[in-house]
Amino acid sequence: MNALVAYYSESDNTKKLAGALAAGLGTQALRLETVDPGALDGYDLICIGSPVQYGGPAEKVRDFISRMPMLKGKPCAAFCTMHAFGDQDTLATLHRLLEAKGMVYLGGCSARGWSRLVANFGPRIFNRGRPNREELQRAEDRG
Questions:
Q1: What is the pTM of this model?
Q2: How far, in Å, CA of 79 to CA of 76, rounded?
Q3: Residues 23, 109: Cα–Cα separation, whole Å
Q4: Distance between CA 15 and CA 5 in Å, rounded?
Q5: Structural domain spans, the chain
Q6: What's the rounded Cα separation, in Å, for the pair 98 and 104?
Q7: DSSP H or E stretch at residue 52
Q8: Rounded distance, CA 74 to CA 105, Å?
Q9: 3.40.50.360, 3.40.50.300, 3.20.20.150, 3.90.960.10: CATH of 3-138
């Protein structure tokens, strides 16, 4: 199977989760910025990852999906990382956006990430060591 695991990450949390998922699928994770949203037809499965920002997917992920062509019947999945909450709303939004492109949503997963107090300001103090080994293993197993 030719799977795409594309992610946007600012703190490497989503990058770690993408790497684990990609390992389970036997592929490599790619930064979203390196993927042409118009050239996705050759993939059998498309997985999109985002950090939770302001209760939903990052704006760069929303923009990427908006530039994707209609991919009727193409299987897809989503994943995200979060500080404490917001994963369910983020995955629901990604679900809706991907299905609006004609794709078949297979599901999603999430993990906590090592985060700063407020956005990207201040020292990293919450969720040290996250995503942890168990969360990464679950993502790899999902792949």
A1: 0.86
A2: 11
A3: 15
A4: 10
A5: 3-138
A6: 8
A7: strand 45-53
A8: 9
A9: 3.40.50.360
Distance CA 121, CA 115 (A): 10
| 94 Rama sector, left if φ>0, alpha if ψ -120 to 50, beta otherwise | alpha
Measured in residues, the chain has a length of: 143
Helix (H) or strand (E) holding 81: strand 75-82
- The DSSP H or E segment spanning 105 is strand 104-112
Query: Over its length of 143 residues, how does the chain's per-residue pLDDT go in tens digits?
Result: 899 999 999 888 899 999 999 999 999 999 999 999 999 999 999 999 999 999 999 999 999 999 999 999 999 999 999 877 788 999 999 999 999 999 999 999 988 776 655 555 554 555 455 676 787 677 777 77
Which amino acid type is present at position 5? V
Quick one: which of 5, 3, 16 has its CA closest to 111?
16
Is residue 87 within 8 A of residue 50, CB to CB? The reply is no
Instruction: State the amino acid at position 70 in one-letter form.
Output: M
